[in-house]
Design a protein that fits this description.
Helices cover 28% and strands 16% of the residues. It is of the alpha/beta class. The strands form two sheets. It has a seven-stranded parallel beta sheet with strand order 8-7-6-9-10-11-12. α7 (209-212) links the parallel β9 and β10 (225-228). The chain starts with 7 loop residues before the first strand and ends in a 15-residue tail after the last helix. The structure holds NADPH dihydro-nicotinamide-adenine-dinucleotide phosphate and oxalic acid (OXD). Residues 69-71, 89, 282-284 line the site of oxalic acid.
Length: 316
């Protein structure tokens, strides 16, 4: 072990095998594994996921918290979170996985995967009319690190792309809308809605019936489609079911849910027009993320600023 750098790392990885994170960390830093470590003055950095152990709140020399995920809603929701910078994940590996997931789901809805899956057991040889990608508009809510990468890939596949953000932004080839005033125009020109928003006070419950009914309904897919890979509490699942059942929504691909794991009694599991994945769109891989975190810790020790720091006031 070569751990010349100053300052131990506190590792609290509920839901992951901490050994997978500890191994690459220990090549460059000493590590304390939760629940050990309360009051330890040698700990300067923490890497955390969903559950925050009490020891985190009493570390006297903590300088920064690294989130093991891109989303930080679960951290900011804890009123005891120390007032140090929070660094979130921005990593090529995670971004590529999200791009794969979004393109996979957009293409499956566009190429009428559910129709073919229903036909096969009945041995039906029937080719439904297939629209061109240029006729199907994809609207991405959240044109951040992930949304922009997905927009580029979808443009390359030939889809017209809309983007919706909090602040005014631009992206070549993308029709950009922002804020509450931009939302109706964005929705009215969107056939496939891709949700890549963070969960904040402003975005909680945004995917509700009123929003879904504003999507374009006379598009070539025969009805709008929802793909949510952001956070489950962005959506109202009762409203999604209502929209699916009354025709306001044609199909949905959902990776995230109001309660995770998705409870066995949820009607989403068996709805024939819903495709469920278990929060698997883009998982954090320690072998890719730990070197980036270690580089940031070294840069911080050299007096350089941290990158990808969360704006606590905005909530992401
Ligand atoms: P970013 O912070 O880079 O981008 C967030 C985007 O959302 C920005 O464009 C931002 O607008 C927009 N936004 C935020 N609040 C609002 C609002 N009130 N109204 C309109 N737009 C808003 O985040 P990432 O792209 O890195 O990640 C997005 C989310 O994806 C994460 O927060 C996480 O929840 C989720 N995620 C899910 C994964 C999965 O496996 N399912 C994996 C990884 C992430 P602006 O540009 O104006 O700031
Ligand atoms: C993340 C996630 O936010 O995996 O990174 O959901």
């Amino acid at each position: 072990m070569s751990t010349s750098a100053e300052g131990r790392v506190y590792l609290a990885m509920s839901g992951y095998d901490p050994a997978d994170w500890r191994r690459p960390l220990e090549t460059r830093r000493e590590v304390t594994l939760a629940p050990d470590g309360p009051d330890d003055p040698t700990i300067r950095f923490a890497i955390v996921w969903k559950q925050l152990p009490p020891a985190l709140f009493t570390l006297p020399n903590l300088k920064a918290i690294f989130s093991a995920g891109a989303g930080v809603d679960h951290l900011l929701a804890n009123p005891k979170l120390p007032e140090v910078p929070i660094v979130r994940v921005v990593a090529d590996n995670l971004t590529k996985h999200m791009v794969e997931y979004v393109c996979w789901r957009v293409l499956d809805h566009h190429r009428q995967g559910s129709t073919y899956r229903a036909q096969q057991p009945q041995k039906i040889w029937h080719e439904p009319r297939q629209p061109d990608a240029s006729q199907v508009s994809v609207g991405i809510m959240g044109l951040g690190n992930l949304g922009r990468a997905c927009a580029s890939a979808l443009l390359a596949l030939g889809f017209p792309v809309n983007g919706w953000t909090r602040t005014e932004t631009e992206m070549e080839g993308v029709r950009c809308w922002h804020g509450a005033d931009g939302l109706p125009g964005f929705l009215a020109t969107t056939d496939v809605l891709v949700v890549l928003l963070p969960l904040t006070a402003a975005t909680q419950g945004v995917i509700n019936y009123d929003l879904l009914r504003q999507l374009r309904h006379d598009g070539p897919l025969g009805g709008p489609v929802l793909i949510n890979a952001g956070r489950g509490r962005l959506q109202r699942e009762a409203d999604i079911l209502r929209a699916l059942d009354d025709g306001a929504l044609k199909e949905a691909s959902l990776d995230v849910f109001e309660t995770e794991p998705l409870p066995a009694e949820s009607p989403l599991w068996s709805h024939h027009r819903v495709f469920v994945t278990p929060h698997a769109a883009a998982t954090s891989w320690p072998e890719h993320l730990v070197p980036l975190m270690l580089d940031q810790m070294d840069a911080f020790d050299r007096g350089e600023p941290l990158r990808n720091v969360v704006d606590r006031a905005a909530g992401y």
